[in-house]
Amino acid sequence: MERGSVTTPFGRRPMTLGMLASQITASRTRAERSVDKWKLFRWLCEAKTVIGVSDRSLAVLNALLSFHPGTELSGEAGLVVFPSNAQLSLRAHGMAGTTLRRHLAALVEAGLILRRDSPNGKRYARRSHSGAVGEAFGFDLSPLVARAAEIETTAAELAAERQHLRIMRERLSLCRRDVAKLLDLIRESAPQSDGHDYERMFELLIAQIPRKPSASDIEAVLDSMDRLRRDLTNQLEKLLNSQKTDTNDHRNGCHIQNSHPDSLSESERGLGKGGEPFLRKAADTKAAEPLTKHQPKPASRSTSSLSAADRSSRLPQRPCREIPLTAVLQACPQIADYGPSGRILSWRDLMTAAIVVRSMLNVSADAYDEACSVLGCENAATIIACILERAEQITSPGGYLRELTRRAQRREFSLAPMVLALSRAKGRGGVVLAS
Question: What φ, ψ does residue 163 adopt, rounded to 5°?
């Protein structure tokens, strides 16, 4: 930093180390670097809790940005605006003078603007004979350009956290509704059974949810709630099997089992063991029904219990990661440039980078949210990384993402072939895709 580039405030305002640090940061801004001021302002609004500014301070900053001509903030052009307090107050929706000065000081303290005070403390600019602005005294916006990457990354991280929290809340609401309906079904279908333990466990889990839960709080309750849902489904399945056996014994006198050694029921149980990759298309097979002689239709009450229990057993499970992070980064190296500090070390970093890339590729938030709900946040971020690698061949990234989401809902899409194709195209055919 050059010695002559340091400026101190006018009047009784003292010089602080924070002001000096902001000036040093602003002086290191490259002249060719530029950023859209309104995109930067939206990032600030999303990251205001981390940056440490209030909404009123952001209203004053919005007014200051409106005095800068053009939409691009660049080090090559002048970044000093010099409105009077009266004009600044009008564009800040009539904010009082004392309030205006307090929020200007808050913006300076947060390191978002700098004061370039004149010898007498007035704000003005000297113009050349052609009318161009020469030296100006007022508020310097260069710290915004210097911190643009930091602000964008912070906004993307907070957006990823909010999206993850929203998805966790949705899953907990669905699981909570399922458990409540299954408890009602047990009370209706088997009033003699002892379901009070399940009800007490359900009430205890509900009581553990804080008023404003975090994602970790929701995940802890969701895991316990999901286990309770599986236990209730198993109880209803046992009840259903006992009702079917009683009905067959009562009407037919003897229940003839299928003794064929190649019964499909055995192979179906075998298919259920072991973790299948997420969204891998499975064969549509049905469990073999036991052979009965003149098997009658079950009672209407049993039919309703069957449909409810069958629906609860087919509830959507939490999507899991299909591809390891190392394989994703080997096949899609460009996504690392958009991660925090220019690198990706975890799935959280990948999801943060995917938020930035999604905005850059003009993929709507609705399309990305839908992909996260169907595929899971990690798998949706992997697809964004793959789309970034093939951005030149894909004319509509948002439409492409929606089509992949629809195929995933029909169980017709898997991430493994997409990542493997990109890996082979880059000469990395030996990438291990098993997690």
Answer: -65, -45
For the chain, the helix, strand and coil percentages under 3-state DSSP, each to the nearest 5: 60, 5, 35
Calpha distance 105→420 (Å, rounded): 54
26 in helix, strand or coil?
A: helix
φ, ψ (nearest 5 deg) of residue 115: -90, 125
Q: Do 406 and 367 meet the contact criterion of CB atoms below 8 Å apart?
A: no
Q: Helix, strand, or coil here: 125?
A: strand
pLDDT band per the 50, 70, 90 thresholds, residue 65: very high
Instruction: Find where tokens 């997690």 sit.
Output: 435
What pLDDT, on a 0 to 100 scale, did the predictor assign at position 289? Answer: 40
In terms of pLDDT, which residue wins out, 289 or 115?
A: 115
Which position has the token pair 């890996």? 423
- Whether the full predicted model's pTM is greater than 0.70, yes or no, is no
Q: Is 412 exposed, middle or buried (0-12, 13-18, 19+ CB in 10 A)?
A: exposed
Task: Kindly provide the residue ranges of all beta strands, DSSP E only, lying in 158-308, ordered along the sequence.
Answer: none
| pLDDT score, position 237 | 85
Place of tokens 């061949």: 393
Partners of 35 in the β-ladder: 73
Q: What is the DSSP letter of 393?
A: T
Number of H helices, E strands in the chain: 18, 6
Any idea where the domains of the chain sit in the sequence? 7-146, 157-236+302-318, 325-425
Six token digits for residue 383: 């697809």
Instruction: Write out the CATH class of domain 7-146.
Output: mainly alpha
CA atoms of 322 and 309, how far apart (whole Å): 29
pLDDT digit string, tens, across residues 123-161 = 877 776 666 666 778 888 888 888 888 899 999 999 999
- Residue 425's closest CA among 413, 433, 417, 435? 417
Give the residue among 149, 97, 113, 60 at the shortest CA–CA distance from 341. Answer: 149
Helical (H) or strand (E) element with 243: helix 215-252
